[in-house]
Amino acid sequence: MTTAPHAHAHRRERPFVPFVLPDTIAALPRRPFAFSRAGLDAAAAASPDPGALYRLLLREQESEAPLLLARRILDAFLHPDGDHGSGPQQAPDTGDIATEVAEARRQLAATARSLRDLDPEPRRAVLLQRAPVTLLAGCWLATVSQPATQPSVIVNRLFTHHLTLRGNGDTRRGLTHLRRRALENEGIHLPPIAAVDFLDKARARPLTALHGCFHLALARLPANFLPEVVGVHYAFHTLGTDDLLTATPPPLSEDELGRTLATYLDLAGPDERRRLHHAVRLTLDLEREHLTLLTELASRQTGLTLEAKVAEIISRHAPMAGTQHGSVRVGDRLMSDIFRSRSHPREASAPPDLAAFLTDLRASPYLRPTGPGHGDCRLTDATKFGGPMFGILDERETATLRAWAARVQAGERPVIEIPPDTVGREQAERRATAIARSAPDDIVLAETEPRDHRELFHRLVNIENFPHTLPLAAERAERCFQDAEILFVHGSGGRYTDASWFDYSPQALYERAERIYWEKLIEPYRPLRDIPDRDEVLFRQSTFYLTYLIDGAWLHRLARPGHDERDSDAMLFAIYADEMGNGDLRKNHITLTHRVLASAGIELPHIRDEAFMEQDELPDDLYGFAIQQLCMCLFPDRFYNEIIGYNLAIEMFGSGEMRLHEIQKLRHHGIDTCYEQAHLTIDNFSAGHAKQAADIIVSHLDGVRRLLGEAAVAGEWRRVWRGYASFAYFLEQPLLKKVTEDPPDEALTELVI
User: Fold this and answer.
1) What span, in angstroms and rounded, lies between the C-alpha atoms of 602 and 591?
2) Closest Cα partner for 504 from 728, 704, 731, 643?
3) Which of 65, 251, 369, 698 could bridge 42 with an S-S bond, Cβ 3.0-4.6 Å?
């Protein structure tokens, strides 16, 4: 690890290559990953346990440590021996890769089908073990569409796949939900994947959790690992392991996957092709490795004696046994002493001898018959309602215990042998060791503040490489939201908005939005009689272009794995998909922006490039508006309420007077109006984004009311409305200037307090 130098000075110190459509990028330039000392320390303190890593990468989306861990995990999987020059040396073509994957699929498909055809119990064990991978399928596409990668040809092709996997905006038709229903048909009912106990309920082994960690790590850094994303995506879905195991149709056709691979390879250079091929081969290895684990698990499950199955049940629940068994004895020992090693690991050196325990248990009074039913005894009676073990075992476990008790009562006394459970252990230890040793040389310590708005904008666009900027981004976003509350009192004087406070109800929100729409956006419109000259029109447009170049960014991190339970999440994703043209580059709003820039003769680098810090076409004093969007979007959990309020404001602004005037001026001077025209139609308040944005707020707050009660809605609403006000805070500068020049308003002070 090295220390990052301060960013270089800018302002056109060197020539740049203007960005022109189409965006044929196949990989971003290699850059270091900058972390603060606090971020490095937090990552070092994180538990190395595979399950803990899985949960951290899935649940913690807003801090530095998971990004650093993701970088190390990717390094460990892609270069397990620390040799960054290993892997395929030739740059393969589409046919070579397709042939290699097809051969692997023929081999693996036979294994997957044999696992699907198992008896119910081992098949259930296999599907349960695979679930942490099954339910993550495609997670690497969650944020592949972002300001740094749009409007890339390959990214938009991948986005169409992401849209398909998410049910085209209806998550109930999405792959995750379809797979869940397939599991439920097998009697497997799991909590949401982001739930704390998901891995425990899935009985995930360390190797399974580590495979999930690789997929999640790729999902955290997709812009920097675009060749790997394409390779993993192609190989994983072409193999179709989960399609075979769950007997569900493939979500993406083989032809479409092949065309996407060919599209990428046409764009890629030799290095990108090698990286993709290496990721393909890694994916084949991982699927072989996991199917081997599932096969060994099924074999072990099939070969377990009834006694061994009972031992597994006891082993599973023993860690929570505690001391509540009181004076209960089995053999010559207290139960609390027997299981002390599991419930109090610091007090003992070895787990209990389960074979000896079961031998003593079947000779104890607890298995003597207590009724006419087979298996009725004090032990099984304890699992019934009112008994001390009621609710501890599930139905299958209880049935296994009763079957064993019945055999014991029938006089069966086989020698109890419990085979060691080593399934997947060696492979998990090997991969965990590689993660522990991983030390990528592109991780740097960086504590410096950005020099100015231009450098901050560059960092936020390329946030994967500048995680140390996250605390600053959170602070800036929160400060803006707080400052914007001044409009709770003065907002009615806005030219295009009304952020003045009102008490929430669905009816009140719709009435306020409709009044803004008619009174501030529609009714004031009159066609311009005098058109400003071209320079003035272009200058005004230039004040918008920075935000146009990140259109939709405030929503791009909301469609993450494990965050699709709310109806409002699906509705927000549908809006973002529209902003990105639903994967159609012709309709992508970033594409439209570049079309407008080209028609106006404005040449700029892409916003992801360092050269953009030196551009001199767009005004310096307007970076704050775009920066606020980029700051808030990095915290989709912390600022969820503010984001949906902001979303209402920005979608409503797409309609009415301002947009119509801009279209009139642009047409007069022969400048492309495609961007303005698209928003004038798509953002309408009849059924478009503006109306949908209001519906999203109502849906979210209704969920809050049902989950937390009416009293909780008020606090959530205040945050939603300050999100709306934060948009007005930048837009209504004449009003803000007037307000801040006036003496302090006592009513405002009282409201803020």
Assistant:
1) 14
2) 704
3) 65
Q: Among 210, 615, 232, which residue's Cα sits nearest to residue 432?
A: 210
**What would the mean pLDDT of 571-586 be, rounded to a whole number?**
96
What band does 2 get if pLDDT is binned at 50, 70 and 90? low
Joined tokens for residue 176: 């995750």
* Alpha carbons 554 and 631: distance in angstroms, whole number: 9
- Which value, in Å, is the radius of gyration of the alpha carbons in the chain? 30
Q: Are 144 and 559 in contact (CB under 8 A)?
A: no
Task: Quickly tell me which residue has 């920075």 as its tokens.
Answer: 546
Strand partners, 329: 334
What distance in Å separates the CA atoms of residue 71 and residue 139, rounded to the nearest whole number?
Answer: 16
Per-residue tokens: 99: 């042939």
Peptide linkage before 151 cis (omega within 30 of 0): yes
Region of 375 (left: φ > 0; alpha: ψ -120 to 50; beta: rest) is left
**pLDDT digits 0-9 by tens, 28-81:** 999 999 999 999 999 999 999 999 999 999 999 899 999 999 999 999 999 998
Give Cα 479 to chain centroid, integer Å.
26
Q: What is the mean pLDDT of residues 185-190?
A: 95
Quick one: pLDDT band at residue 481, thresholds 50, 70, 90? very high
Alpha carbons within 13 angstroms on the beta-carbon side of residue 265 total 20
Q: Look at residue 337 and tell me whether its pLDDT is greater than 70.
A: yes
Residue 92 CB partners (closer than 8 Å, separation 6+): 273, 277
**Rounded Cα gap, residues 689 and 683, in angstroms:** 4
Query: Which CA distances in Å does 315 have to 20, 312, 554, 679?
Result: 62, 5, 48, 60
Question: b/e string for 616-643 if b means 16 or more Cβ within 10 A?
Answer: eebeeebbbbbbbbbbbbbbbeebbbbb
Residue 405, number of CB atoms within 10 A of its CB: 25
Place 14 in a pLDDT band, splitting at 50, 70 and 90: low
22 preceded by a cis bond (ω within 30 of 0): yes
521: DSSP letter: I
Residue type at 744? Answer: P
Identity of residue 481? F
Half-sphere exposure of 110 (CA within 13 A, CB side): 5
Q: Which has the closest alpha carbon to 731: 524, 499, 452, 488? A: 499
Task: Kindly give the residue spans of alpha helices, DSSP state H, lying in 135-197.
Answer: 153-165, 175-185
Whole-Å CA distances, 79 to 75, 209, 304, 322, 440: 5, 19, 37, 43, 10
Distance of CA 144 to CAs 138, 160, 559, 669, Å?
11, 11, 11, 37
Q: Is the predicted pLDDT of residue 10 greater than 50, yes or no?
A: no
pTM: 0.92
- Is the Cβ–Cβ distance between 147 and 223 less than 8 Å? no
Please say whether the dihedral angle defined by the alpha carbons of residues 270, 273, 278 and 284, taken in this order, is positive or negative: negative
Q: Hey, what are 721's tokens?
A: 């409305």
Comparing CA positions, the residue from 28, 608, 13, 570 lying closest to residue 267 is 28
SS3 annotation, 73-140:
HHHHHHCCCCCCCCCCCCCCCHHHHHHHHHHHHHHHHHHHHHHHCCCHHHHHHHHHHHHHHHCCCCHH
Taking Cα atoms as reference points, which of 612, 302, 629, 230 lies closest to residue 458?
A: 612
For the beta carbon of residue 538, count every other beta carbon within 10 angstroms.
19
Pairing of strands 329-330, 333-334: antiparallel
For residue range 668-696, what is the model confidence (pLDDT) as tens digits?
A: 999 999 999 998 888 788 878 999 999 99
* Band of pLDDT at residue 238, cut at 50, 70 and 90: very high
State the Cα–Cα distance between residues 96 and 248, nearest whole angstrom: 28
